[in-house]
Amino acid sequence: AGVPGSWNGSFQAVSPSFDLRTLSSGWHHIAYVGSGTTTTVYINGNNVGTIPVKITEAIRSVGNHFGSAQSWGRTAEVAIYPSALSQTAIRNLASAAGCRTRPIFASDWYY
């Protein structure tokens, strides 16, 4: 519990392990960037690890795997981009400096 990852028939955890429960209370910028055969996870603009898989299927849920009873909280400003963003772009988004790449889809989701 508390480890970022991805669901692809089974849970794939980020490596090295990162415990989300160590984050301070409040909003945090979380980005998943799929490139090649892996997914890199960024929290507040910092690379916290890699997941050994890149999901290419339809996104069915954000914040928790479909059907999970684990508490997640609220999610806002979801964006899906047509290509992998650089760490600089991720840091700009995390610091609210903005990004020149325009998202394909953006919305506010609340749970």
Descriptive notes:
- With 111 residues, the chain is mainly beta.
- Helices cover 7% and strands 32% of the residues.
- The chain is built from one helix and seven strands, in the order E-E-E-E-E-E-H-E.
- Strands 3-4-5 form a three-stranded antiparallel β-sheet.
- The two termini are 19 Å apart.
- The relative contact order is 0.19.
- The C terminus is likely disordered.
- Structural category is mainly beta
Number of DSSP helices? 1
Strand order, main sheet: write it out: 3-4-5
Output the helix-strand order: EEEEEEHE
Spans where pLDDT lies below 50 across 5 or more residues: 97-102, 104-111
Query: What would the principal axes of the Cα set say about the shape?
Result: globular
Considering the chains and any ligands shown, give keywords for the structure.
111 residues, mainly beta, three-stranded antiparallel β-sheet, two-stranded antiparallel ribbon, 1 helix, 7 strands, globular
How would you summarize the topology of this molecule?
Blueprint: E1 5-7, E2 11-13, E3 30-35, E4 38-43, E5 46-51, E6 75-80, H1 87-94, E7 105-109
Antiparallel strand pairs: 1-2, 3-4, 4-5, 6-7
